[in-house]
Every structure is written in structure tokens, then in C-alpha cells.
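Q: What would this chain look like folded?
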Amino acid sequence: MGEFYIVGAEQKNKVLKDWEQYKKGLILKVCPAQKMAEKCVEYISPSEVCTEKNPSILFSAGTVDNNLLYVGTQTEILIYSLPDFKQVDYISLSCFNDIHHVRPTAKGNLLVANTGLDMVLEVSLTGEIINEWNVLGGNAWERFSQNIDYRKVATTKPHLSHPNYVFHINDDIWVTRCLQKDAICLTNFNKRIDIGTALIHDGIIFGDALYFTQVDGHVVKVGLFNHEAKQTYNLNKMTNKNTPLGWCRGIKVIDSDKVIVGFTRIRPVRKTTPEGKVLWEGEYGVLPTRIACYDLKNEKLLWEQQLEEYDMNAIYSIHSANE
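A: My prediction, written as C-alpha cells:
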């Protein structure tokens, strides 16, 4: 069955705005066969790269490559060696805001989903910006100022796109756009993969297919080169529960039909009316934050493991610890 690294965050002990929710980044090593987990990293960002009031600190989606884990916080990139989790590099730039994913390139640079500014950056390990893309097209800085330290800005919401995961198809660079429910090619904007229906995350390549998660509990499988070949799998039906499964985000593909997905417990959302009245929408979900393994071909839930007893309250990515 193997062991897995789960990347995410620990929740604060009260309900807050979504950009204030988390107290620390957390990485677990999970052994589903024994229903066990251990903490590998607990991380709190230094004050100089955070907002002054009530910052949210978390680990967002990472990438494992060549025995290194590349992972972001809201305003930083950290690189850890595996399996000892020794920090070997660190980058924080003033334009970083709400980073959602980091991936190394073949040239040794980093692709960064800089979600708060609706852009993707290519950054060297010394912190030099090599390329920058507005994920909606046009000038990357048309809505933002290069003179502002966005690490000190609590939120730039509402986002217009919310890019959250970068990947390569051959030499092309792609990014998953949550709000457009698609993936767009940054090196050729004529190329696009339409997912549709619900907010999406991920973009994991396995064999000749791409795997995306939808927050309402679906996995979408798309042909890597024939983007019209699309299959949608309803995890709600496979789980057979009469309650929302949770915020579905993070996927590890085991084989062409078997996947492990992450579910983050649903929590209330704070909203303010035009009159200034604060409202809370939604309730605490019944089901805990957990990972779950599904047989997509046979539409069957194989196993689940809850992670809240190890202080993990949000999941962003899932990685094999045996590669």
C-alpha cells in the first residue's frame, strides 16, 4: 500500500476569514496499512514575510522531484531534502501572495502559482524573476503595482482567476485556473482544457492522462494530448454518504484507475453584506479532514484515513514517500 507525504496546515481554534484560518504549515508521513501517521515538519513563517495582523500560515501544494520537496507558504518557497526533511533552500519575494503551488523546471528554475496576483512566475533559485504570466492574458502587472510588498497584504480577493497548479506537457507550461474551471497553456494561449462544472484543483499527469479534482467531490480524467477525451468520476456516489464529503483537493494517482484524494473538512465562510453586517454561511462538516483511496473503474471506496488527530485540518497535496 505504501506510505505518503501529506502537505497542508493546522487550523486555528476559532472561525476566521479564509485568509486568516491557519496557524502553521504541516507535513505528515502517513502509513494507511497501519492507520498511522507522524509529523515530519511543523512550520511557522517569520514575521517579516507575513501580514501584521492575524496571518494565515500553511503549506500549499508541493512537488517531489529528485529527492527534494518543493513547497510554498502564503509568501515563501521552501525546499526540503527527503527523507530527512532538512531545509536546503528558501526564497521569499515581495510579489508573493497566496502561493498555491511550486514546481521545478528542467532548467533548474521554479514555476510558482502566485495566486493572489492571478499570475504564474518563473523564478531562479537566487530569486530572480525569469518570466511572469498573467493567467488571463495581457500584462502581468496591469492590476497590481510592482512597488508594493504583497507579503504584507492580507488578501487581494476577489481573485479573477485563482490559478492553483502548474504542470508541463512536453515543453509547454500549463496552469489550472480554479474560477475558469479549466487549464490554460501559458506558452500558447490558444491551447486550453475545459473541465467545467465545479471549481477545480490539481493537474496530475499519469501515463497519457491528466487528473483534476473538483471541490464538490469529483475526479476528472482528461486525455493528455486529446483534450476532448474526458471522464468524470463521482466520489460522492462511490462513498455512499448522505453528507458533503468535504473540500476535495489534492490527488495522488496510484495507477490508471486507482487514486488517493484529500478531503478538507468544510467550515463556515465569513461574508460581509454591503451594509457591513457580518454573516456566516455554512456549517462545520460532519466528515473530518482525511485521505481516501478509490477504485475509479469499479466505482468503489477502498479505504479512508482521517488526519485531524495529527492536527492536520487542510490538505493541499499528496505524494508517495516510496519513490
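The two ends are 13 Å apart (CA to CA).
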